[in-house]
Fold this protein.
Amino acid sequence: MKIETGFGGGWLGGIKEQVQALEARGFDSIVVPETKHNSLFHMMLAAEHTERVEISSSVTIAFPRTPMIMAQAAW
């Protein structure tokens, strides 16, 4: 069984410690919401500081972004 947890986001400077602590606790997946901060930045930083957990978004709002911006972020 895989165990997934939500990630509250918040201040970008604290992401490294938060995701490394979740990975150390044995979670298999971390889900990032888009609240007042850009979920794409949070996912990028989370992926940079973890080794084995899967990073996904619960919600990434596409409407305020152009198709080019979304494609560039996916690249």
